[in-house]
Each structure stands twice: as C-alpha cells, then as structure tokens.
Amino acid sequence: MLEGEIIKFYRETAGLTQAQLGEGICTATHVSKIERGKTAYSADIISLFSERLGIDIQKEIESLKGIDKQLQNWHTAIIMQRKNVVEKIKKELEASPFIDSSKYAAHYQLLKARYYILHQEGEKANSIIKDIQKQHPNLTPYERNLLHHIQGIYYLNNYNNSNSEHQQKAIQVLKEINIDEYGNPEYYYHLAVAYHCIDSKVMAYRYADKALRYFKKTNNFLRAINAESVMLLQIGSDVYLDFQEMVERYENLIHDSEMLGALDKKGLLLNNLGNEYKKRKEYALAKKYFKQALSIEAETPISYLKRLSNYVDTCLEGKLSRKTTLLKKAKEGCSLAKQLDSKLYITLFKLLIYRIENNMEQYYSFIEEKALPQFQSSKHVLCINRYGKELYEYYVDSDQHLKALQLSKLFMCSIS
Predict the structure, then answer these.
(1) Which CDD domains match (predicted)?
(2) Which of the four, 3, 107, 113, 327, has the lowest number of CB atoms within 10 Å?
(3) Cα atoms found within 13 Å of the Cα of residue 357, Cβ hemisphere only
(4) CATH no. for residue 6?
(5) Going by C-beta distance under 8 Å and a sequence separation of 6 or more, which residues neighbour residue 39?
C-alpha cells in the first residue's frame, strides 16, 4: 500500500525507529506491518503518523502515483529524442523525495541508464545495469524486458574496436525481449543495427522495416529516417536495384533531416551515400558526399573517424587530392584514433598511410601480420573481405601460392 511505503520513507528520513513513530499510537510491530502492507489500518492511524512526520499524506500519495506516468513520459521522450523534454522530466523525477526507494526504483534506474547511453556515457550506464542485476533480482516482466533492451543498446554503443562479439551479444539479449510484455517495438531498430553490423542483410532489413512501420505510426520522424537508412544500406549491393531510385531516396532523407534540424542524421546519410558511389568506383561523386559529411559535426568521434577514413581512401583511390594533403589527414586520423584507443581505426589509418607513401611491401606485411589477424579476432566481416582479398591477390601475383591457398581456407572459415 502506498501509505505504508510513504510512512516508511519519511520515518527513516527523520531518523525515527518504528517504536518511536508508534509511541502512543500503536506498537512497533504494527508500524512494521503497515509499512510492509501486511495489515489493515485505520485512516486515523495514518493521520497521526503523518502529523508526527510533518507530511500531507494525500499530497504524497498523489505524487507517488504520478511517478509511474512521469516514467512513461520520460521513456517516450527518450525514444522520440526530444532532448528538452528528456531533461525537463529528468529534473522533475530527481526532485521526487522517494524515487529511489519506491516500487518504481528499478524502472527509474533503468531509464537513467538509457539516458546515459543517449548522452554517450556508457560506463555510467553499465554501472547502473550491473547494480540492477545485483540489487533487483525480482524485476517485473516489463522491467526485465526493458533491461534486455538497454543492455542491447549498450553493447551496440560500446565497441570502439567494432568487435563483432558486441553485436552478437546485442542480438542475443535483444532476442530475449517479449514484445507482448514490453510493448515497445522500438527495439526492432536496435536489432536491425546489430544484424547490419554482422552483415546479415536479410535480418537487418526485416527488423528495420518493422521499426520503420512503428516509427511512422507514432509520428517519430527522426527515428523513421534512421530505420529507412538502415534499409537502404542492405539493398545497396542489389544488382537489380535502380541505383538512381536509391540515390533519390537518400536525397529525400537528407532533405528531411535538414528540415528537421537533424544534422547528425544528415551527416550519416551523406556518408552512406558516398559509400554507395565509392562501391561503384564513382570516386568524384563519392568524394563530394564524404566532404559534405565531414563538414557536419559528427555525433561521436568514432563517426568522424569513419567519415575521414572514407574520404581519404576515396581520394587516394580516385587520385583526387595531393598525397601530401592526404598524408596529413591520415596522420590526423591515426592520432585521434590513438587518443580514443580505437584499435580498428588505428589500423585502418596505418594502412592508409602505407598506401599514400607507396610503401607497398610494408603495407602487405602489415595486413598479413597485424591487420588481418585483428579483423579476424574481432570478426569484422567487411574488413576481412576487403583486406583478405587484397592479400590473397598479392600472394597470387607474387607467386606465393602456398600462402594464397592457406589464406583462402582461412578466409572462407572467417566469413562462413
């Protein structure tokens, strides 16, 4: 009962024992039962307790009842990415005197973890996740599913080295969600992203389509852009696709992002469209879009490194910039990657530097000894495909047939 929970909170805040609170009113045992909701009690007793504690019990009851609605509104604002509303509700919840001791404590802490992930504070989120797992073994079905969702998002947002194991963990935990208990189809989007990261195109498209329908139904236009962009990534290699139609879809999404003031999404879409032109060896157009993407502030430093790497690689492949300029940018990227301790981008920029300097012997040696083993260890499928193929062709061209045969076997195992 809410009255008992409120009485207990204010009694402990006042530093009173159950005996002290009940003195002249009832026994300590009866106070204990009231606080735990284990017995019936009269309104007069609650009134006397309230007077002794100096609280308005009816006001406190209404405040506690309102927490549930506030938590729902906070979650919705986070899903909708309405940052001002998110901050406003956060302050209101923090002002509640017994938010951390109420029956909503676990729900509140879970949403705090989601809030920290939204603000790129993964370690704070992970600390909360661990605390909840230890301190709240009996979560409600909704809270348990919310925990799975937040764990999945954490794994997706916590892989500077693009380790495939993180995406696999994300898929595993997100697949445990029971949508009937949870009622939040937003998690389909995170499943789509996880499948995209391991290059599972069919599953990524399937869940992105589900997420898109949900976002459109709820008028969540910002997230709809995210979902459709994931869908476009899956169909980019379809030889039967009308490429110009895909370009128009990208341009429409870029325009929508600009109209909604979502510059981070615009930058992501420009980068993705640049990649589509790069895959088709239309380097001048690829450079154009990568350059536009770089001109927009990236949401995270890792996003910036991705765009910079694409830009330098494209200019080098298409011979579109001076090597001195590209070398400076590649070294800048490598330096930032070291600061971020991003093993993936340290390696990618080192490979770019070797190519720009035309140090091809060192380039292939580095792929063989460092880069490819790293990509295989982290199960980075796209890098395994690209650099495994390059090394294989180098072995064949240089008559290292035994190494080519060994690599082809290892290569097939790595991508199976």
Answers:
(1) HTH_XRE (cd00093)
(2) 327
(3) 15
(4) 1.10.260.40
(5) 30, 33
Domain count, the chain: 4
Residue 24 lies in a domain: yes
DSSP H helices, 319-380, are 323-340, 343-356, 360-366, 372-377
What are the phi and psi torsion angles at 303 (to 5°)? Answer: -60, -40
CATH of the domain at 349: 1.25.40.10
Q: Which contacts of 342-348 are long-range, i.e. CB under 8 A and separated by 24 or more positions?
A: 342/160, 342/161, 342/302, 342/305, 343/160, 343/161, 343/374, 343/378, 344/160, 344/161, 344/162, 344/374, 344/378, 344/380, 344/383, 345/302, 345/305, 345/306, 345/309, 347/371, 347/374, 348/309, 348/383
Query: Cα 23 to the chain's mean position, in Å?
Result: 53
Domain boundary among 165, 184, 203: 184
- Mean pLDDT on 120-140: 93
Amino acid at 54: G
What radius of gyration, in Å, describes the C-alpha atoms of the chain?
Answer: 28
Fill in the DSSP letter of residue 398.
T
What SS3 state is found at 392?
Answer: helix
Domain coverage including residue 124 = 67-184
CB 416 within 8 A of CB 386: no
pLDDT tens for 353-408 read 999 999 999 999 999 999 999 998 888 888 998 999 999 999 999 999 999 998 88
| Inter-residue contact 176 to 141 (CB < 8 Å) | no
Residue 217, class by beta-carbon neighbours within 10 Å (0-12 exposed, 13-18 middle, 19+ buried)? exposed
User: Chain-centre distance of CA 414, in angstroms?
Assistant: 26
> Rounded CA gap, 142 and 330, in Å?
47
